[in-house]
Structure prediction request, 856 residues.
Amino acid sequence: MSQLLRVEGISKEFPGVKALDGVNFELDRGEVLALVGENGAGKSTLMKILSGIYSPDAGRIVIEDQEVDVTGPKAAQQLGISIIHQEMNLMPHLTVAQNIFIGREPRTGPWLRDAELNRRTKQLLDDLGVHLLPTQNVGNLTVASQQMVEIAKALSFEHTKILIMDEPTSAISISETQVLFRLIRSLRDRGVGIVYISHRMEELHQIADRVTVLRDGQYVGTRRMDDVTDDEIIAMMVGREISAAYDDRQEVRTGSADVVLSVRGLSTKNLLRDVSFDLHRGEILGFAGLMGAGRTETARAIIGADPMSAGTVTVEGRELHISGPNVAVKHGIGYLPEDRKRHGLMLEQDVTFNVAMASLSANKTPLGFLREGRARRVADSFIKSLRIKTPSNRTNVKTLSGGNQQKVVIAKWLARNCDVLIFDEPTRGIDVGAKEEIYKLIKQLADDGKAVIMISSELPEVLRLSHRIVVMSQGRVTGTLSPDKADQESIMKLATQNIEEVAA
Amino acid sequence: MTTQRTDEDLADAGTQSPPGESVAAAGARTGRFAGLGQGLQQMLAFGTLIALVIIFFIASPNFLTISNLSSILLSTAVIGILAVGTTFVIITGGIDLSLGTAMTLCSVVTGLLLANAGLPLPVGVLGGIAMGALVGLINGFNVAILGLPPFIATLSMMLVAQGLALVLSGVRPIYFNDVPGFSRIALGEIIPKVPNAVLILFLLALVAGIILRKTILGRMTYAIGSNEEATRLSGINTRRWTLAIYTLAGVATGVAGVVLAARLNSAQPQLGVGYELQAIAAVIIGGTSLLGGRGSILGTIIGALIMSVLINGLRILAIQTEWQTVVVGMVVLIAVFADNLRKRRAEGGAHK
Ligand SMILES: Nc1ncnc2c1ncn2[C@@H]1O[C@H](COP(=O)(O)OP(=O)(O)OP(=O)(O)O)[C@@H](O)[C@H]1O
Ligand SMILES: [Mg+2]
Prediction:
């Protein structure tokens, strides 16, 4: 039988960046091909070319021995290519059903048949085992549910031959990931070819048959997943050895007695119930739990982004009423939001603008003029220390790859020099090399006497970095563990505690 | 309102999703308020309308008379028709400032065809509407194909239409005294006591409501306003739909032009500026979001009624026109504020 997809010599240049340089790869029917590479390696760009969003400067795309020209998203759909984009692309004011079937609504002439639309959507969601109502507004869903809507949408095309998933699991929890993997396997068994992009090594072993590596826009190689170790893949990705990537054990330090931040009985109208914990100087406090457990809500309530209905927040021994993020920053509490595109970045502005955003007071003259030069130097130093891949500090952050955008958010808060830093999913969508650098940074911050809260859904990193781990479930703290006593299992048990009780 | 819109539009001009969505999707929220929100805002607007009627009724016995009510409805007709059309544009996240002068241009075209050229009535009416459609098409072309910010594109069109109306008419009103039956389009009463202009408004609103809720065009209107980039990435030709939406709004402008001419029994080339702001105000009072993605025709009709009840009532109470304008401005402000409050409550108090 003919080969499903062959990509030859694809090149693409953006102003100042050669995003892709003569890339090749092949995809067979019924296989899952992992596509990996550092942030900015060109993975998303390559997939956007396949799905008709960008046109390549050079190269050929051959589907079943036919050279094709993917002129747009519609053409891609007609060729049987569907894609889940890295950045979510949903219409928040429309319902789940309306989003999934956008542009393909069942209708009679110009008339929409909404009953049919909802029926089909329900069928699809049931088949996928996704518990969402077709008539729910997407804007009201959690990030994880929105991601499931994206996935359902991509799977709703009946004639999909090639399915591209650009970091589909970056916003969903372990149980949802397992649902997704089941789906991927059943699609694979039906002969669909799947390109799977992820920065999570453990996922690749579970799901991929082969792995193709890109580095700086160039094709490095392809291996069978069975024949290759993580370290080999990483070496291919970064072109150098990353030492101590996985055996770097944290030194356990008991948090010093002086409490920097103390939260008691924190509740909100919708979710949180009686959340209490202490954060010490020099401590990294991990927050684990499933999506929607209330970790982000806790952070938002502390910094005053959402109102709390009960409870107290005490900073350095003083009980404070924090009415908004600006007040929180004044008291030295910084929050790095999980959804960088919505809450973390000014997408239309350049790197310097974004890095300087949280520390404007340090970058202005007494009269209020901005110290442009100083801000640019600060930005440059972070570009170097965090290895942000960008042509210059004047580049629009919109054009950076997802992982590099995340690094800009981190730089912004590091520049502010807060005493308490709340990282919400700091390594989401970040490549292995950069993750290590961010871990190092977080550790360094703690060693320098800062207090860090790290909310993360990646248990390995919580286990590795935290001095103590707070586990939440359904808006409550269900346990606080020390990492030498905790493992993935004990955390998951606490994280699902209430859910099981309710179900029983 | 106008100046604020400039900034948003310039910001929107790129391919990014509209701002303000941040409010919509913060964390774990139930879908409880999703369907309710729209209805709530409409109920609020409707409650305001009823309250106004009661207040004016208590304040003046002349308010709640058949003839005054009929005159309120009649004065709602033109603004209402414009507002219904431009609701579509605003839901896409766009804005149309050329409404008022384009409407005048349509009146003038109808005048030229009927009064000057002596063509049959239907030709004049269709000619006026076609002129509106053409203006809408050009607006749509400038926005969707050339990628101009709607604010700029329609501001230019506002001036072009104004100039053309003056040139074509020779800066003189065109009277329809020799066109039998023309004024009946607005003032005749197929249903007793209900001027035809009002009938036209409600029929148009009904059709527009159905289009918005039940047809693919309506779905695309919400989708584009909600997240244009996402809509485009779904394989939809957003340009073509945007073009269609602006053209549709243009048709409504044409209808408004014909109705206005019929009501005045003349085409007044000097008239028109200011109508667009009143129409946009009605849309906003009715709960349609300037940021796109949200809105309804029913809300717009209620909004238009609130405006004309307010103006009529203030007039009956013998309040100076200057102060009437101030009050209308404040009502728009309150409407937007109420909308914000509602949104915040629906999200359990997220963000600022
Ligand atoms: N529209 C654009 N304009 C300019 N440069 C761009 C554009 N899109 C991508 N780039 C650049 O092309 C390079 C490749 O980006 P791409 O998004 O494909 O990386 P990626 O491999 O998907 O990274 P990540 O793992 O962070 O998602 C990056 O240097 C990025 O800054
Ligand atoms: Mg990417």
Summary: The pocket of adenosine-5'-triphosphate (ligand 1) is lined by residues A 14, 17, 19, 37, 39-45, 86, 389, 399-404, 431 (CB under 6 Å). The mean pLDDT of chain B is 84. DSSP finds 14 helices and two strands in chain B.
